[in-house]
Amino acid sequence: MAVVSVWEVPPKVSAARLMGNNNTGNICIWPSEEVFAHLLLTRHAGLLARNSFRAIELGAGMTGLAGVVVAAAAASDTAAVVVTDGNPTSVDLLAANLAANHGVSWDAAVDYSADVALCGGRFDLVFAADCLFFEAAHLGLIHDTNGESEEPTGPRHHFEVAPGQYQLEPVPLFADKSGIRKPHISTNPASAWAYLVVAAVASAVYCNSLWGELFFDDEYAIHRNADVVSPDPVPWSHYWRHDYWGMPMDDPRSHKSFRPLVVLTFRANFLISGTAEFGFHLGNVLFHALGSALVLPIAGTILDGYSHASLFAALLFATHPVHAEAVAGVVGRAEVMCFVFYAAAFLAGVRAARRYHTSLRWSMAVCAFAAAATLCKETGITVFGVLFFYEMLYVMNWLELPVQAKDEAAAAAAARNPARVGKINAVVAAATRFKLVSWQPDRFWPVFVRQVSYALFGLVFMWWRLSLNQGVLPTWPEKDNQAAVSDELLPKLLNFPYIYAYNTWLLIFPLHLCADYSFESIPMIESFADVRVALTWALAAVVLGGCLYACGLNVLRMSTSTRVHLPVLAAAAFAAVPFLPSTNLFFLIGFLVAERVLYIPSLGWCLLLGYLLKLALERSTGRSRQLVLGLALLLLVAYSGRTLARNADWASEEALWRSAEAVVPSNGKVNFNLGNVHFARGEYAQAVAYFNVSLIASPDDPSTLINIATCYAKMNAFDTAIEYYEAASKLATNLGQFFNWGAILEHRGQYEEAIKVFHMASEFSPHGGRLALYQDDPKMKALAAMHEGTLLCRVGRGRDGLDRFYYAVRVDPNLAEAWMRIGLEHSVNGELDKAVPALERSLALDPSLHYSADELAKIRTGERSAADTPRELPLSAQIAAAQDHVAARPNDPAAHLALASLYHATGEYRLALASTNHALDHAPESIDALAFATQLHLEAGETRAALDAANRAAALPGATPRLHMLHGLALVDSGDTLAGVAALERAVGGDSSLAEAHLVLGRVALASGDAHRAAGRLRKAYAARVRAAGGDKSAAAALPVLYELAEALLAAGKRTAARKALSRLVAADPDFAGAQVLLDSLQ
């Protein structure tokens, strides 16, 4: 037998106010009460057996039959049942009925406040047998039905309503109509099949990603990461001291991306299946399926357990195409794993927030899951921000707009200004009365304790995380994030909002997806006149207006509403809070747009669409309901199809960059990677074409210059290769670049130049250039010094060579070949006491060095010969050697052409031309000889002779872009402009880096009156000259082209661009003829 308490609850909007006195509860015992009493006894027998059982009946009427029956059936005398009604007559009649029943104690009260929590605010059972005819009469009780049993196990809360016209979700019904938001009441969890469906769909849409390759960032995170693929056991400390790529966190070159939990899963993949791609991709898909399944309870929490909407939101998340980068790209596992722990932390926070007292167990679970999420990716720490909004919206009910607020506000506005009782006054007045804080101490203090605990834990954890960075943040190339690196405020104000809008658009319409958005793929906004500014703020207005409407403010109608759409605000929190680390507001990040970082924020979009589906289903019936469900299904099918197609893009490196090329064809990184694809296939000409496009986007990128040089070296175009190596060396220090460059020079017999190159490599410092591409490798430096020493010995500078050998062994004491060369050099010089230890050391390090063994044997037997270390002639004697070679082989055109090249290098034009003509005498169809002859004649101003040689060469198969350029120059000089332009177009079509061709094409276009085309050509000519000068935009060879570019821009009516070009020119050379005068005329 339970104690029965009877309460009269004065409604905020009484039935009498609406239609007169409400006496429906005083007519009879309604059939629903009898049926419902039986239902409660059979369904909740376990609850009735509890000693601490607490229950409340809403709208009991004159008999309170269901509540009294429950009280009578309770097993313990300490149980309590609260019976309520809003009609005083019903309370009086109920008191009389209870008095007639002996053995049941009760007390009646008529002074009840909605802010007082009944029974401590905790109920095991909340039921309403027949109260929903006038649901407004129970608004005050909504705040007090969020109870939980203190039992550590079992169901926490039950809500029952008698069958009737309001059977479907009764509490949201009158809560929404009242304008007061109920505390969150948990509903029945999703069934097991729903979780299985979501997980199955999430796996199915990524099934075609399982056999994708490991490439791009996967190569560095897995194949080149010793923490992942080491055959030996990896020390546990490595995972907590190294970044995502296996580099120590205190290394200046580290990206500072600390994700040890993800690296551990990569290690597990490797231990299970090696480097097989399938295992790594399967791990990503399984994590995605788990995360998608966790969206179900999250959506149930936000959308009040509405099954269709929750399932729809979870399926949207499972199939959203923007997730492809994170799921199909193995490195994206950081995003997926982060979300799994992120979702677990949020759900734990929901459990903690259900109690009126602080739940230490669930609060600790929140912190643990949040820490795990952050150890997968730094975004995980933002879950505390999402939980803050959740508790403020759903637990504290901080957004309340009581019904009478609107009426009182309107009355106040009319009293102040009777002539203007308009919508604006009503909105302003209502806003002043907008109730943000409902002081409920029983709820405030537990929430306050939880939030302070979360904040303190988050601050301490982030302090520890940032301490791993050693106070250093990663640096990024300017081209990766142009807006963020700008020192000016205006570019940020113009571009940051647009970037946020662009990300939002990717969530809404994920059709044109791309692996990279750097290198000005998204053009910078430079002024407010750009139409994208208006579009951005239009979208911002829609978002802000939607949030205000969700708060109960209708901006369009300038009015207020009593309904608050909390799921909209919760969806906004899920979308915005996890995106904060990617906004560039707190620290610089290495990208403008990256689809992978939208993985967690996309949940906000999915929840919003789920809520819209819920609203649509509530307002539709019959065919309209079928139409709504059909549209939802169509969206899921469209998302799934786009995801499957996007997975195919991530199947291989070429497919990925081909798809990116279709979206951003001028992107430097995209073209660079496509060039690498062709290079790997041995398609060097195609590779050069893509690398040249990349150079247009980033003229000062040393990696691209090195790759172009390597391609030309592979095609035996050594002159061009050397030009690019020289240009790259002025921008960056790269050991691989020096070795290739030096090897070419050595192969061509240009020993002095090769010595200089190897010397630069031996003195390599990773921080010495504008951009260090490779880490400091002592072994490579020692090898470079050894090569330098060898060449010095060949040109007769043995002592200098010996010094470099000693330098090599100081850098790498275990370089056996360097010790061998030290011993040989000392032996040749008769310094046997120094030769023997060096030779013995070399043999100890490498017994296979037979030169050391032979020389040591000769020394010990008293024999030694300098012939064993042959030397080559100094470079100054090469012409004499070439002349001897020509005399020995007078019919060899290559010998004559080699001699011509040497004469040209010394400025002996006539001798060079004579040797070239001798080569042509023996090989009249030699394209190389004809091209060289054309160049010599053009340099000497002999247009007719140059044209004759060029015409002969152009008629032969296999003409090169350089030959087309020479032919075009000769044609233009001879007056045949049309033919010359055609030849020059063919030249730049094959090699866009030919500056002279662009320059002449620009001059011809300007002379013909096409100033716009001229400006484009001259801009390319200037970029090519800058590249040739090693990226120096103030190089003397580039400044005249810059002046011509300014003239073309001025002719095209682009005064601002012309002024910028002239300003750059004057800054580089204040005395440049005519530049300052022209600039002054434009001011």
From TrEMBL:
It is a multi-pass membrane protein. It comes from the Eukaryota. The keyword GTP-binding does not apply. It holds the Pfam family TMTC_DUF1736. The chain crosses the membrane at residues 192-211, 285-306, 326-350, 362-390, 444-464, 499-519, 534-556, 568-592, 598-615, 627-645. GO terms for molecular function: dolichyl-phosphate-mannose-protein mannosyltransferase activity. TPR repeats lie at residues 668-701, 735-768, 816-849, 893-926. It is an enzyme of class 2 (transferase). Pathway: Protein modification; protein glycosylation. Belongs to the TMTC family. This is dolichyl-phosphate-mannose--protein mannosyltransferase. The lineage of its organism: Eukaryota, Apusozoa, Apusomonadida, Apusomonadidae, Thecamonas.
